[in-house]
Amino acid sequence: MPNFAANLSFLYPDLPFLDRFAAAARDGFDAVEFLFPYAFDARDVKARLDDHGLKPVLFNVSPGDWDGGERGLAARPGHEARFRAAVEEALAYAQVLGCPRLHVMAGLKEADTARQHAVYAENLAWAASLAAPLGIDLLLEAINPRDMPGYLISRQQEAHDAAAATGAPNVKVQFDLYHCQIVEGDLITKLRGYLPGGRVGHLQIAGVPSRQEPDTGELALDHLLAEIDATGYTGHVGCEYRPRGDTSAGLAWLRRYRASAGS
After folding, report:
1. pLDDT, tens digit, for every residue of 14-32?
2. Which residue, 62, 154, 176, 215, is the most exposed by fewest CB within 10 angstroms?
3. What NCBIfam families does its record include (predicted)?
4. What pLDDT, on the 0 to 100 scale, is given for residue 54?
């Protein structure tokens, strides 16, 4: 059965961030992910993880000025110093938290996308050289243009190509089934094609098109989870969706799945 992680930036939105750890543990999660922890002292976040027996599996390198419209720094020529500072900050947090993966956002398309991809590869290779001795993987995600218009990479092969261009084995792909279904679909074929190669470091799920519970909308959730198991994937599946109402009540899909899987 896949290992599920609660995304605490999306789930339990009625609670303050630091209180969401206890809620996730009560609902049976043993792993969590989140977007940007930098508004909190890393030691405070670590205390919540330890208090509730949770392991962190993923968070994001700072994307720059999110409220100002920035969506990543890794592929932005002229912003190399800002990118390096953001990576160093994220690695410091990851060491305190014991988190093995960081999502590195590319940024929005600019006029010279060829130059952006070259900078992307250079920046990622530099970051990977810092992360590797710490046992940390860097992840790249293809994001659909409806949720994030103008993002540099939107297709799975683009993410795999960008990871390969770095030449670094610890640069991997964050395969979000929600984004993939919106852009290109054919999820079963893509799971079969990409997961056995070892380049996918993390999966995420949400219902399509609403980005609510993953058993809503057009995805055949049980079939997809069975296929993930069949590929031999042993990583985590992040629950990165917006609950329709109470998060715990909305986890009926997970309780049903665990019961049917005999866990």
Report:
1. 999 999 999 999 999 999 9
2. 215
3. OxoTetrIsom (NF043033)
4. 98
3-state secondary structure of 122: helix
Question: Which among 31, 25, 34 has a CA at the least distance from the CA of 52?
Answer: 25
The four Cα atoms 152, 175, 239, 71 give a dihedral, to 10 degrees, of -10
The neighbour count for residue 92, using CB atoms within 10 Å, is 11
Count of domains observed in the chain? 1
Cβ atoms of residues 8 and 21 within 8 Å:
yes
| Active-site annotation, residues | 141, 240
Domain that holds residue 9: 3-262
| DSSP assignment letter at 143 | -
Tokens of 57: 């599996």
Q: List the structure tokens of 11.
A: 């789930």
The two tokens of residue 192 are: 């079969």
**CATH code of 185's domain:** 3.20.20.150
